[in-house]
Known about the structure:
Chain A has 366 residues and is of the alpha+beta class. Chain A has eight helices and 18 strands. In chain A, strands 1-2-3-7-4 form a five-stranded antiparallel β-sheet, covered by helices on one side. In chain A, strands 9-8-10-16-11 form a five-stranded antiparallel β-sheet. The model of chain A has no long low-confidence stretch (mean pLDDT 93). The interface between B and C is medium-sized, with 22 and 22 residues.
Amino acid sequence: MSSTYHGQLTVSIFGQSHGSAIGVTLDGLPPGEPVDLDTLQTFLNRRAPGQGDWSTPRKEADRPEFLSGLLEGRTCGAPLTAVIRNTNTRSGDYANLKDLPRPGHADYTAQVKYGGFQDSAGGGHFSGRLTAPLCIAGGICRQILARRGIAVGAHIAAIGGVPDTPFDPVHLNETALLAPGEKPFPVTDDSAGTAMQTQIAQAKAAGDSLGGVIECAVLGLPPGLGDPMLDGMENRIARLVFAIPAVKGVEFGAGFQCAALRGSENNDPFCLVDGQVRTKTNHAGGILGGITNGMPLVFRAAVKPTPSIAQAQDSVSLGRREEAQLEIKGRHDPCIVPRAVPCLEAAAALAVYDALLEQEMRRVQA
Amino acid sequence: MSSTYHGQLTVSIFGQSHGSAIGVTLDGLPPGEPVDLDTLQTFLNRRAPGQGDWSTPRKEADRPEFLSGLLEGRTCGAPLTAVIRNTNTRSGDYANLKDLPRPGHADYTAQVKYGGFQDSAGGGHFSGRLTAPLCIAGGICRQILARRGIAVGAHIAAIGGVPDTPFDPVHLNETALLAPGEKPFPVTDDSAGTAMQTQIAQAKAAGDSLGGVIECAVLGLPPGLGDPMLDGMENRIARLVFAIPAVKGVEFGAGFQCAALRGSENNDPFCLVDGQVRTKTNHAGGILGGITNGMPLVFRAAVKPTPSIAQAQDSVSLGRREEAQLEIKGRHDPCIVPRAVPCLEAAAALAVYDALLEQEMRRVQA
Amino acid sequence: MSSTYHGQLTVSIFGQSHGSAIGVTLDGLPPGEPVDLDTLQTFLNRRAPGQGDWSTPRKEADRPEFLSGLLEGRTCGAPLTAVIRNTNTRSGDYANLKDLPRPGHADYTAQVKYGGFQDSAGGGHFSGRLTAPLCIAGGICRQILARRGIAVGAHIAAIGGVPDTPFDPVHLNETALLAPGEKPFPVTDDSAGTAMQTQIAQAKAAGDSLGGVIECAVLGLPPGLGDPMLDGMENRIARLVFAIPAVKGVEFGAGFQCAALRGSENNDPFCLVDGQVRTKTNHAGGILGGITNGMPLVFRAAVKPTPSIAQAQDSVSLGRREEAQLEIKGRHDPCIVPRAVPCLEAAAALAVYDALLEQEMRRVQA
Amino acid sequence: MSSTYHGQLTVSIFGQSHGSAIGVTLDGLPPGEPVDLDTLQTFLNRRAPGQGDWSTPRKEADRPEFLSGLLEGRTCGAPLTAVIRNTNTRSGDYANLKDLPRPGHADYTAQVKYGGFQDSAGGGHFSGRLTAPLCIAGGICRQILARRGIAVGAHIAAIGGVPDTPFDPVHLNETALLAPGEKPFPVTDDSAGTAMQTQIAQAKAAGDSLGGVIECAVLGLPPGLGDPMLDGMENRIARLVFAIPAVKGVEFGAGFQCAALRGSENNDPFCLVDGQVRTKTNHAGGILGGITNGMPLVFRAAVKPTPSIAQAQDSVSLGRREEAQLEIKGRHDPCIVPRAVPCLEAAAALAVYDALLEQEMRRVQA
């Protein structure tokens, strides 16, 4: 399949970058849930381009139209479908991508897979633009979770070798969690943010791009969400996070660092805090055996540098079967990381709400 | 759900560590595929305990009995079910885990989720023992792939800070890929392996444990496998790899390293090699836009240190609601990493064969 | 879930009768398949209202707009989404359905299930109007099947006790199969059709409505489609046919008649015709063990009388908890059967094409 | 896929008639549900052969062994797997079915689909014996439903033209519902049962077989179960009922009869009974818009005559490509209908419990 997530919620994403519209159907939401469109728009704006020197100057409104599923501001039980019209005209910028694929893009693999029938304009269905429908779906879930005391936030953990102050995996509170998302450049430590922006500006000036790491956390989760083996919270979140085109790695809690620890260091001792079972450390990232343990759920994703760069690159003419140079025209983000921050929140919110719905169903009744 | 993977293949894993049996149903295999049981047993033996000082001295035969799906050594189109009897008797070793959960284990989360009705003996359904059925399913797929020229291999990339020589992501050949799996201690560089074993012995002597990193690669893949967004090869592999209980991170190609690279460094330039489209580097790990590009598919997984250690640890009595110390008895692997190597291969083989089947179906016919 | 079919194709239907739009996402079509929009429109017109005295005089254009998935008249591998705008204004006709539910409609069950948050205007997501997106998806599959020599057709088998000449389940040819669909009133025997229309006119004059039976057949099917037990062709078709709101029964081949036959009568003897294995009779409706046997696939569906009738009916005020009379205003089909004929074809085409794709994948390779 | 149902419960059935074992994995049961094995065995015994002159004299114990998912008589949250060993030895009775397929059986379609690799002994995976695992899964759900006040029962509605007294769709009570299942020959009216048995004896004496109709009902259902369009109760039940090999038709409420009614007759007027919303008639079979309305859920299934008959039949030698006669040896049921009664209950119980679990999850919380 192309772009469908089947859990308790079904998320079906459609559209091509330069087609008529992109959109999403979200099926399985309980009826009666309020959806605040202003809050959703604010969330979507965090992903939209044109917010600073670090992103493409293209202006896309990304204003969803709701075709179904909402009535008087609440879910009505029927599938919810929202679309965003593409206002970019189909330019000639992408005319030769089927012949001369861009390094780091899906042009070549799409050509092989779809035999030349794919829509390659603007990257087609592979465009990062398709994360906008993901954010519509995830943004709605994030609102519902917030009403249940569950907060989802993220920040840039590193760009160009400059680290931000990481979330405190044990003592993180909602204010600290959500603060970065309220800034144009979503970091905890603004001086780190300034240094990152300098790095981005330098890369941009060199016709180049930068990658980075994003850290995401979820607070207020009840223990017991997720399932063993194939439907653990790690499996669920990873599956959704890798839907964001540039993500090349995901780790939970101590993640790859835990590979260098001893068990006595990595194990999180249990303790009681105000009568609640907690752990003293949180190398597990709030997940044991695939199931939430009530501690903050923390994960990080590696985001590769934007593959569209201004420098000339080596490619191959598929038609002429000869090596050739490629220069990518058009305006591109020198660093996609800031705009990917809400996408991670959307993926996490979907995974968490899906698990929460499922847990509702199988709670002990006997 | 607990332990079901739904793709073109359905993999349904069942069993508890100290129950009657563990097993797997693998539905969706084409008919007529030979399954060599000796080759499969050799593969399963790589996961079995008792192979060296680094693993638990428990001896479990892990010999599957096939209840269905095979006829005269070939798949017959019906669901294939294999079971492994548990010969361990239900000891009293685990009697108090429901009250005093082990740090780093699923004891506490299982207690919350299942309300005390879970089978906690030996970790129940959360036991690493459940990776044996995963290896049955994946081992069968690995055989089928081998007949189609696709090889799946893995090695220990690091334990205790000691790195093995990584796979060459561009020039890796089948001999180098499969060599580690033929050794008791699956590394490329045996001197690194010796140093790792020393680290493990030291940790064991200290009543402690070690984690590590495993690197897995797939050779011979046709370009075009996988789908955009939610069913990309990264999504599929990640979902299956996180089924291995100790895995806390997964990265593809340059993975988290790509976060520190510039686009001009990370992008893999296309070139022609013997008339075939290839890339000069392979930071993408053989995957662009979720779809294989014909280069080696390379990924790594972080494996946490075995949570069962001999040292006393802090826990909480759930019944008495008071903090308490815990000492874990029994025999445990000081480092699970070597035994997890074939599990990664199994996960990769399942994901790849599933994508290969799907691709068969949607090839261009018009 | 509400309205999603998950097979090799994912069909996700959305929309409410009086919302902004209704539509469908069809994911999983192979790339490069031509979609002829005129042929599709002709197919959709067979379902559209306003075609004769037997249907509602409402005029709805039912012209789909394709938002994604098509490029230059062919599928492009990305999910295909089509929407039909609702041009009916939200009238007050349905204002009191939440309080006073219509007998035979989903008003009461929707009220209970969705707690009053459902969109009840025009029946909301339960409206027969939602079969239009089903026909878009099925109509596209029907075109693809036609290019592979597989024809799907249907006719009214009975209305008001008047039977049409049934399809010959053994000797049916494509001309006879498709002829009814080319007529405004889709029957084989036009004199039967005239008698049916008389029945409908009489019912309409009495402020009443009629049900009927539709017979559908598929020709040109290769043997081997479908799977044992839960994914047999009967299971697949039944699941899709019951998506048509008025259907209350489905039977294959001799169906309920076979309950009165002896085995020696019901069994279809095998024979050779031009060197091909065939059966002399076709009580099985072309399906043995859930799998096509190469004979015409034949099934029938029972369609209940339109529940919206002009006569006063007994209902209950849910708010006042008292019995009350209801008169339904507005224009309604006195008999929905003629318009449901292409819906059955759509359901059959989806089920068959889905099974055909699946069979591609698992053909013997060893 | 072969034999997997994916809902809130995953039911994965495996095994071949003459293989080592048949069985089922049922994943998704809430933890802590008691499973009474004696009650289950009593239920399974209703399906087992050898209970009277109307069934095969083969004796199969059908005693399930539980490999996982149960602990101290309760579900433990892990997948539940049960197997039944096949004690029949692999006889030569079926040696030539691959060449000379039995009319009315899946021998020919299996040969085409699986290319000769299928297990044809005893019908392999297509055997009616595979309904035993379905009854294990459904029997467990039926117990759980009973604890929630929901009763599932069925009876033979007709055999050989002899009708039983149908269930009263409006006033049916639990005693009347469950009474037939407690008899060796499950009918309401024992004189009808005697007449049916006479018919069966006559058919058997003639080397022939009989089909019939089974009626199933569910009492105590809350309104609101099921979903519009593709996941309505009709869709769900039909999909599971057609898993029973001999079923060729299914109808709900008035079913095919409603095709001959007018709307004013078929619509069920709402009324109040003891303050509860009910309908005066129940042509809808308790389902409106796919959703239960609180009335008895009633459906019927058509069961074809056992295809294995003693009379010589026409077939085709697939190897020699010539017509040939076939005589089926062995012992076969002259009428499978009585043994299929609990299978229908199992299918209904699975569908209903699955919908009940799903409804738990999406109840209005806002």
